[in-house]
Amino acid sequence: MITSLAAEKLACVRGERRVFADLDFHVAAGQALVVEGANGVGKTSLLRLIAGFLPPASGRVTLNTDRGAISDGEERGRLVGWLGHQDGIKPQLSVGEQLEFFAQLYGARDVIGPLLERVGLSRQRDFPCRYLSAGQKKRLGLARLIVSGRGLWLLDEPLAALDTAGRALTAELMSAHCAAGGIVIAATHDALGLEARSLRLEAA
Amino acid sequence: MSGPFASLLSRDLRLAARSGGGAALALAFFALVATLVPLGVGSDLHLLSRIAGGVLWVGAVLAALLSLDRLYQGDFDDGSLDLIALSPLSLEQVALAKLLAHWLSTGLPLTLLSPLLALLFGLSGQGTWALFVSLLIGTPAVSAVGAIGASLTLSLKRGGLILPLIVLPLLAPAVIFGAGAVSGALDHLSNGALGLLSAFSVAAVLLSPFAAAACVRLNLAG
């Protein structure tokens, strides 16, 4: 169980360029944080940094759990549910195969059927993913996020390509996740449709 | 089969078998090369059987090279590698699963096909057996060394072009010992080539997951 996420004096350098520096924030379990800022200000870099893909140039990210604090990147990644701006979907696999693979990979015991029902893809279960629209791929990404069973959700532009109903569904899933004691950190330009604190990144 | 490791392995095998997976492509390439050489060299069976080991080994290595870019590149480009990296598997386990999947979908079929292609070269029974065994032992090393190259060139644009330049020199020992085992069998000599090939293969397979995992880590941070 995650209790909170804290960043102290976080700095990120990509190439030779300093993206952001001296970033401090704190998110408690059950809260959502929206990361805002102009294009190229480092929203995706911040998410990759929290997920443990990128080592911070300085400062640190600490994930507090009931089993102690985790500041190692890869260990932190084991608690992360990821929805990136790349869909991570193989065109050759069917929707059902895709989701079953991730359920097994993440050691989840969820049944796929109800989950596809929830995101509105149950009719497409046997469709090869190459026939999915961008919005449907996003919905599959949401199903994958739920099946991961992870406490810390990192979402990069979660609302892009989704229709009105899809946006409402995303907001509903995020609220439910927070209500269950999870943390949501989303980088977005749109209104998420749920109560969230905001973190504004400025060019360093 | 269940569990994260098995699920990644079976998914990679499934992708290799589906359209665009490249498993069939590598086999067809190997068969074509092995067919063209006798056509080009002529019908001197003595000459053909002498060069069979070398030609088929080089053909198998090149064929395996063709399918290397699907090992990590596809998953890197569409973001799947991010999701796999966050799974309960360590990146070393991921690299081992991918290495195994590549060998099962490329190296093993190439090995199984080789006795048939040896017929085109008039290779003797003993020579064919030596070729088969050397490929069985040596192709895991091809996948292992290839995996290091494939993970190293992930974030390069058109990295597939530079991949053979990195991988081929490193595979020289496999080709030398593999072809050496075949000519040893033809001359009824025990030249120790199979032993050296086994040692090379074991070392490559043991080291590769660690090297590939380090390269993947580097590229995910890039």
Task: Give a written overview of the molecule.
The complex is a heterodimer of chains A (204) and B (222). With 204 residues, chain A is an alpha/beta fold. Chain A is built from 6 helices and 9 strands; from the N terminus they run E-E-E-H-E-E-H-E-H-H-H-E-H-E-E. Chain A has helices at 43-51, 73-77, 95-105, 112-118, 134-148, 164-179, and strands at residues 2-14, 17-28, 32-36, 58-65, 68-70, 80-83, 152-156, 183-187, 197-200. In chain A, the strands form 2 sheets. A 5-stranded parallel sheet of chain A has the order 6-7-8-3-9, with helices on both faces. A 4-stranded antiparallel sheet of chain A has the order 2-1-4-5. In chain A, helix 4 crosses helix 5 (134-148). The relative contact order of chain A is 0.22. Chain B is mainly alpha-helical. Chain B has one domain (4-220). In chain B, helix 3 (45-66) runs antiparallel to helix 9 (172-186), helix 6 packs antiparallel against helix 7 (125-152) and helix 7 (125-152) packs parallel to helix 10. The longest helix of chain B has 28 residues, at 91-118. Chain B starts with a helix and ends with a helix. The model of chain B has no long low-confidence stretch (mean pLDDT 93). The A-B interface holds A 51, 53-55, 74, 77-78, 80, 82, 84-90, 92-93, 97, 101-102, 104-107, 144, 148, 150 and B 2-4, 6-8, 11, 14-15, 18-21, 74, 77-80, 82-90, 220-221.
Count, helices of chain A: 6
- What is the 3D shape of chain B? elongated
- Number of extended strands of chain B: 0
Q: How many helix segments of chain B?
A: 10
CATH topology of chain A: Rossmann fold
In angstroms, what is the radius of gyration of chain B?
18 Å
How much of the sequence lies in strands of chain B comes to under 5%
